[in-house]
Amino acid sequence: MSYRGNGILPARLRSVGLDAGVIRTLAQHTHHITLAKGQTLCPACENMGLALVCQGTLIRQVGFHDGTVSSTELLFSDQFLFSGGTTSGADHNVCFRALEFTEIEWLGMDIIYQLCRENNGFLERYLEKKHRYSRMVEDHLLLRTILSKKEHLMITLAMIFSAKLRRNENAIKITIEELCTVTGSTRQYCSKVITELCQNGILINHYGSLELLDYSALKAQLGSDARRHYELFRAKPV
C-alpha cells in the first residue's frame, strides 16, 4: 500500500542541510508504504530513488541467476535506502524483506534526477549519501571474511540491538534461519551461540524473536577486532 508520506523523509533530509525550496519539493513528492512481516519490496520495481525506513527492520536480499538468494545486511529505522543503478539498468535482483511491520517513505527516481539537475547542493548530498550507503553494503560483506564466525555473529547482534535500543525496544522478530542468512553461519552454529548467550543471561530466545536482557554483556562478547569495526559502523550511520 502506497500513499503520500507524513513528512518524515523531508524532515530527515532537512537535518542534513538541504535548503527550504528543495524540502518543499520533496514533501510534495514523498510517498509512504507499509510492509507486513514477510512482505518483500523491490526498490527498482517501484522506481524508488531514495527511501527512509521510518519504522521496522528490513533484510536486504540478492537473487542470483541460479535461483539462490543471499542476505547481505539489515536495515533499521532512520536509515536511508538507495535503489542501485539507473532506470534502464536498475538492480531488479535486489529486494528487501520485512522482518516485522515496517513503514517506509520514499521518493521516485524521476524527482531525484530532476532535483540533481536543478540543485547542485542536492546533487552533492545525494551522491555523498549514496556513496556511503554503497560502501556500507560492501563493508558488511567484507566483515564475513575479516572476522571469525562468532565475531561476525556478535557484531550483527550488537548492531541489531543498538538500533532497537535507540527506539526504546529490546526485542526483534527474527528467526535463527534469518540470522544465518545475514551472518553466513550454519543453523547449527547460530543455535549454539544463541543458546550460550541465553544461558549467560544476555538474551532470551522466543523461537521467532530474540529479546535482549543485557546490552553491556552482549558488547563484552565482541573481540578487539569486532569492537573496532562495531564502533566504526556506529560512528558513520547512513
UniProtKB/TrEMBL annotation:
The protein's name: Putative transcriptional regulator, Crp/Fnr family
SUPFAM superfamilies assigned: cAMP-binding domain-like (SSF51206), Winged helix' DNA-binding domain (SSF46785)
Gene3D superfamilies the record matches: Jelly Rolls (2.60.120.10)
